[in-house]
């Protein structure tokens, strides 16, 4: 077997070339420099509506909440079954459309959190038990950027 001897200078150059290549690769893979902190924020107005058989005389029943938007004229409905041992239920309007039960129009459209005046009623086993009115306020957000 025949050995080929390279001069030390070309071996040293190859070594430095590999080292610089590795450094360049590490530099490219390094995370981006830190920037100012930015917050994401959301605010949604909700109203809690509820019905309660105060003395528990009714037993199990179905509560149908109907909310009417005075601005659009649309009605949104949510039906809840109150089991034996429970006297009532509270619901949020508008409810999150990703939940299994949510306020929706007859078309299936989820109730939006649109500012305005609303009326509502709760039908217990098909008969009006309670009702009222409320206004959803306008909401807004402010974001503060914190410099690093």
Report on the architecture of this protein.
- With 148 residues, this protein is of the alpha+beta class.
- It is 15% helix and 32% strand.
- The protein has one helix at residues 8-29; strands at 47-52, 61-69, 75-82, 88-93, 116-124, 127-136.
- Strand 5 and strand 6 form a beta hairpin.
- The longest helix is centred in the N-terminal third of the chain and has 22 residues, at 8-29.
- The chain is elongated, with a radius of gyration of 32 Å.
- The model has no long low-confidence stretch (mean pLDDT 84).
What distance separates the N and C termini?
63 Å
Structural class: alpha+beta
Shape: elongated
By DSSP, the count of extended strands is 6
**Share in β-strands:** 25-35%
Brief overview:
With 148 residues, this protein is of the alpha+beta class.
């Amino acid at each position: 077997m025949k050995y080929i001897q390279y001069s030390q200078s070309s071996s040293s150059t190859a070594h430095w070339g590999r080292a610089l290549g590795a450094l360049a690769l590490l530099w490219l893979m390094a995370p981006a420099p830190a920037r100012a902190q930015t917050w994401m924020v959301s605010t949604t107005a909700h109203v809690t509506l509820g019905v309660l058989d105060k003395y528990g005389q009714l037993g199990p029943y179905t509560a149908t909440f109907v909310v009417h938007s005075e601005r659009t004229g649309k009605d949104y409905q949510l039906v809840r079954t109150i089991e034996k041992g429970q006297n009532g239920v509270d619901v949020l309007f508008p409810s999150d459309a990703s939940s299994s039960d949510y306020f929706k129009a007859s078309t299936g459209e989820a109730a939006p959190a649109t500012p305005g005046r609303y009326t509502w009623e709760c039908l217990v086993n098909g008969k009006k038990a309670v009702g009222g009115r409320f206004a959803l306020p306008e909401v807004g957000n402010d974001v503060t950027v914190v410099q690093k």
